[in-house]
Design a protein that fits this description.
- This is PD-(D/E)XK nuclease family protein.
- Helices cover 37% and strands 11% of the residues.
- It is α+β, with helices and mostly antiparallel strands and 342 residues long.
- Among the domains are: 106 residues, Lambda Exonuclease, Chain A, CATH 3.90.320; 82 residues, no CATH class.
- It is globular and about 60 Å long.
- The N and C termini lie far apart (45 Å).
Length: 342
C-alpha cells in the first residue's frame, strides 16, 4: 500500500448497515501478560454455572434498571470477552453488571478523543503542543459525559495523582508524533461506527478509530492502543479486532482493506498486517462458530467461567464461582439444551 502518511484521503468509507480455530485474544487488563485463550465452540457452552442464591436488595434494585435482553450482535470487544471467559461475557452483555472505571481505560478514552479532535485543525496546525493543549478540555468533557470517571480521583484532594495521570496522557500523545505525521494525513473517517449483517443473520458492529483512503482507493484501518505492543507470539491475537473490522468493511463495500495498522503508544511500536480474502473468510467462520456458542449458552443459561491471569483485573469476582461468589439469578428464559427458545 502506498504510504498513507504522504497521501490525502479520497472518498470516505460509509457507515451503513455488516474457522473456529482458536486464536490468542488481546489482553483487556492494563499491562496484562497476553496469553492465548481457547475459543472453541465446544467449550463455550461449558459446564453449568453454580446455582444462584439471594443477592442484596440494593443490587436487585440496581439490576432492575438494566433490562436483560438476549444478545443480538457481536463487536470485537464482546467477542474477545467470550473467548476470554464466557461468564464475563454474560456479566457484561446479559446481566449488565456495573464496572468501576479504571485509570488505564479512562486514559485511553481521553487520548483517543484528543487524537480524533486534533484532525479538526488544519494540517499545518496539528502539532504536539496543540494536541497536549486539547487534553484539559477533553478531560472536562469526558467527566461531563461520564460522571462516574470522577470517582477515579475522589481520594486525591490536592490533585497530585490526577496531575500525574494527565501527564501520562500527555506523554502518550507526544509519542504518537514520533510514529505518525498528522500534517501529512487526511483521514477519511474518525471514530467510524460500522455495522454489517452477514448472510447468516449475524450482525457485526464496532467503532474504527481511523480510516485512511489513498487516491488509488486503497483503504487502511488504523487503531490506537495506549498500552504496549504484545510479544511476537501473540501478535495474531492482537490483530483479531482489526481483522474483524476488515471483515465488516469488506461486507459493506466489497473492498478488502489494503492494510491494518495498530499504533501502540505505550511502547512506540506500529504493528501492520495486509489481509487477504482467505483471512476474512477465516474470521467469518470463527465468528459464526463463536456466535453459535453464545446462542447455546444464552438458551441454556450455562456460562462457564474460564480462569486466567486476567482474572485479577475483573470487577466481578464477587459473582464468580471461581472466587467463591454466586452469579445473579439468570434473567432470561432457559430452554433445554439444543432448543431454540431464545
Amino acid at each position: 500500500m502506498p504510504e498513507a502518511s504522504s497521501e490525502p484521503a479520497a472518498e470516505p468509507v460509509p457507515a451503513t448497515a455488516p474457522e473456529a480455530a482458536a486464536e490468542p485474544v488481546p489482553a483487556t487488563a492494563p499491562e496484562a501478560a497476553a496469553e492465548p485463550v481457547p475459543a472453541t465452540a465446544s467449550e463455550a457452552a461449558g459446564e453449568a454455572v453454580a446455582e444462584s442464591v439471594a443477592v442484596p436488595a440494593s443490587e436487585v434494585a440496581a439490576r432492575a434498571e438494566r433490562v436483560a435482553v438476549a444478545p443480538t450482535s457481536l463487536s470485537p470487544s464482546r467477542a474477545s470477552d467470550f473467548m476470554q471467559c464466557p461468564l464475563l461475557y454474560r456479566f457484561r452483555v446479559i446481566d449488565r453488571l456495573p464496572e468501576k472505571p479504571s485509570e488505564a481505560a479512562t486514559r485511553g478514552t481521553l487520548v483517543h478523543a484528543v487524537l480524533e479532535r486534533l484532525f479538526d485543525a488544519p494540517a499545518g496546525e496539528r502539532t504536539a503542543p496543540r494536541a497536549k493543549a486539547l487534553i484539559p478540555g477533553q478531560w472536562d468533557r469526558l467527566r461531563e459525559n461520564r460522571p462516574e470517571v470522577g470517582e477515579l480521583f475522589a481520594d486525591d484532594p490536592d490533585g497530585a495523582r490526577m496531575a500525574g495521570w494527565l501527564a501520562q496522557a500527555e506523554r502518550l500523545v507526544e509519542r504518537w508524533f514520533t510514529l505518525e505525521d498528522p500534517t501529512r494525513l487526511e483521514p477519511a473517517e474518525r471514530e467510524l461506527f460500522v455495522e454489517a449483517e452477514l448472510e447468516s443473520g449475524l450482525r457485526l458492529r464496532g467503532i474504527i478509530d481511523r480510516v485512511d483512503v489513498a487516491p488509488t482507493g486503497e483503504v487502511r484501518i488504523v487503531d490506537y492502543k495506549t498500552g504496549k505492543a504484545p510479544r511476537p507470539e501473540y501478535a495474531e491475537g492482537a490483530l483479531f479486532q482489526m481483522k474483524f473490522y476488515a471483515l465488516v468493511v469488506w461486507r459493506l463495500k466489497r473492498v478488502i482493506p489494503r492494510r491494518l495498522q495498530l499504533v501502540y503508544l505505550g511502547s512506540g511500536d506500529v504493528l501492520t498486517y495486509d489481509p487477504v480474502l482467505a483471512d476474512l473468510e477465516r474470521v467469518e467462520r470463527k465468528l459464526h462458530a463463536l456466535w453459535e456458542a453464545i446462542r447455546q449458552a444464552t438458551e441454556t443459561g450455562n456460562w462457564r467461567p474460564r480462569p486466567t491471569r486476567l482474572c485479577g483485573w475483573c470487577d466481578h469476582q464477587a459473582h464468580c464461582p471461581e472466587f467463591g461468589g454466586t452469579p445473579p439469578p439468570y434473567p432470561l428464559p432457559v430452554g433445554a439444551p439444543g432448543s431454540d427458545t431464545v
